[in-house]
What we know:
Two copies of one chain form a homodimer.
Chain A: E1 8-12, H1 23-31, E2 34-38, H2 39-42, E3 53-57, H3 62-74, E4 79-83, H4 93-101, E5 111-114, H5 119-127, E6 128-129, E7 134-139, H6 147-158, E8 164-167, H7 176-189, E9 194-199, E10 207-212, E11 225-229, E12 234-237, E13 240-243, H8 248-251
Parallel strand pairs in A: 1-4, 1-5, 2-3, 2-4, 6-13, 7-8
Antiparallel strand pairs in A: 8-11, 9-10, 9-11, 12-13
Helix pairs in contact in A: 3-4, 6-7
Amino acid sequence: MHINSGEIAVIGLGSGLPQHLTPEVLEALEACEVVAGYSRYVDFIRERIAGKERIETGMTGEVERCRAALAAAASGKRVCMVCSGDPGILAMAGLLFELRARDASLADLPIRVLPGITAASLAAAALGAPLQNGFCLISLSDLLVPADEVRQNLRAVAASALPVTLYNPAGRKRRDLLAEALGIFREARGADTLCACVRHAGRPEEWRWVGRLTDLPEDQVDMSSLVLIGGPRTRYENGALFEARGYAEKYLADGEA
Amino acid sequence: MHINSGEIAVIGLGSGLPQHLTPEVLEALEACEVVAGYSRYVDFIRERIAGKERIETGMTGEVERCRAALAAAASGKRVCMVCSGDPGILAMAGLLFELRARDASLADLPIRVLPGITAASLAAAALGAPLQNGFCLISLSDLLVPADEVRQNLRAVAASALPVTLYNPAGRKRRDLLAEALGIFREARGADTLCACVRHAGRPEEWRWVGRLTDLPEDQVDMSSLVLIGGPRTRYENGALFEARGYAEKYLADGEA
């Protein structure tokens, strides 16, 4: 993966573990001159970028970090913006395109997105195959989308049969929307609906819980967690959470299993 | 990635290109004795598995292929089941767990899911960042879920503000549900809603179309395509399709951009 002078590559580190880094992402990290990112994610690849210029900010410095990355590229540097998971899902790619669109002087600045494994895939792999037939992915952060819009989205998808993954489910202080979301799904799908929580999906410190929606240990849910709410096809058997397929009865010949 | 004797690793090849194969997946392909998969996906890694036993079937041989893979593992072999994209999203992981759950003699057979980059991430990266704030992922194949349930899901999510990706949007003969889906979204979100189609996402033969929902060239949509329907936050500027963030007005200081 060649990066041109004056270009930003927005890269996804997946879980951050070496086993989840794609060759394309590793080549971009090698080829760039400047690495921008939230410090916790830069930590995942810090040894690989020794000696390179860094633009690091804390969790709330997203706009500042993206502006600095755009400015570095505008000055002719080869820039990597690192994200966890996939850069196009609840990460930095969107903000870079949005900031570029707001500044006519940046109109021609190339932004390339190098995909990664998103947290929903990492969490699903840890649990079994609960997203097999499709799903909805909603963030409960009201920094990204106003809380009323989040509520409207939750109510709409709760009326479907699709499992739902909740990203950014709760912060230390921000816990009300999680409680509301669980209430919406209890009402629409029933208290016995299968549900899961995975913290640090795909990493050695991974922690998993599977049970009924009404029993979810809400106080264990934090910003490193993904909450998954099942649908009518969700099953939990032999320790695996998975979605049964609609055509099972048709195709899995009788008496064979 | 060590595979034990008698274990199945279900692996995701992403786009199938070497640049999207994770180290974990490559190690599993190296470590296994038997490779099972749809021939088109096995083609992506055929040179890497020279000399290994293969269980290949065509597109409709999914149950047969999964049963043969389970039987091979039950006989003590180290098995890889290859999928494109992520194995847990519209791929083979769910069916393996389902078949295992139906056969008491397989109850202890370990199935490990090694995540990959799903088509939604590959297509989004090609377009910009249209899934940035969350999205719904729905398959239009009525082999997986009955058509009436697909319609119910489409109507439910159309009432949200979330972009929607349609997997398996249409086959050579199966095109009615795509027409219906587009009608549901035109009605709920308006004919001017931004929309995209990406064929062979992330591969050299990739083909992209972006425009208004009402102008989508339906006859160009096939089983290698992903259709994306935007929401009220979707923008198309400087050739990039992306979702604007709700907090832009709050955080992007006035007069700066």
